[in-house]
Design brief:
Length: about 220
């Protein structure tokens, strides 16, 4: 079998989320860097692999898959046991709900703040975007009020997805002092395999955003 490849950009939160999931499940990957700032995702060779030209993209012996949370679920089902993506239908439904929360609410609101600053010349964060994100963080804080991890008392691939999103906005300088449960969870997340590598990418992302914000 060929090496499993992950086309990856370290500054991308979804890409780091997929890599964190792989490390959690203990799936060895060959990472192939696709620099979005240099528009390498639009190269002819990458477009042949993924016409939607996004990272992360997985190549598992010719099986191509993109969308970070789909990749995490696939790796957990194919190469893991049910430890991080439980087979119990209700436990799995809760993990899925948190993954969808990240993809539909948390990450899009982070992206709405950061991408215009990175790519559209915006230098200030609109108050309405701050309110939207803090409202979403309030829900996450509630999720964590009665459980150790985001989808219950066991670590799961939902934590790796949300960790990648959260560390990105934290490195921009977001204040989470109003969310004590998130703070506690983030401290617990330091034990997740690949945490430091994730932080390296998050710091680069945060620095790229911060340098364009008007102070």
């Amino acid at each position: 079998m060929s090496a499993i490849k992950l086309y990856h950009f370290p500054l991308s939160a979804p890409s780091r989320g997929a890599l964190l999931a792989a490390k959690l499940i203990n799936v060895p990957l060959e990472t192939v860097i696709v620099d979005l700032f240099k528009k390498e995702q639009l190269s002819e060779s990458f477009l042949r692999i993924n016409p939607q030209h996004c990272v992360p993209t997985l190549d598992d012996d010719g099986f191509i898959l993109w969308e970070s949370r789909a990749i995490a679920c696939y790796l957990a089902e194919r190469y893991g046991d049910d430890k991080y993506y439980p087979k119990d239908i209700r436990k799995r439904a809760l993990v899925n709900q948190r993954l969808y929360f990240d993809s539909s609410f948390l990450y899009p609101r982070i992206r709405a703040i950061c991408h215009p600053i990175l790519f559209s010349g915006i230098t200030e964060i609109k108050e309405s975007l701050k309110i939207d994100l803090n409202s979403t963080l309030g829900f996450l804080d509630q999720f964590l009020a009665n459980s150790k991890w985001v989808a219950g008392d066991e670590l799961s691939i939902a934590d790796t997805a949300i960790l990648a999103s959260m560390t990105s906005i934290l490195e921009v300088g977001w204040d989470i002092s109003a969310f004590p449960n998130i703070q506690r969870w983030l401290n617990d997340c330091t034990s997740i395999p690949g945490y430091e590598e994730n932080m390296e990418g998050a710091r680069l992302f945060g620095a790229a955003v911060r340098k364009n914000i008007k102070t």
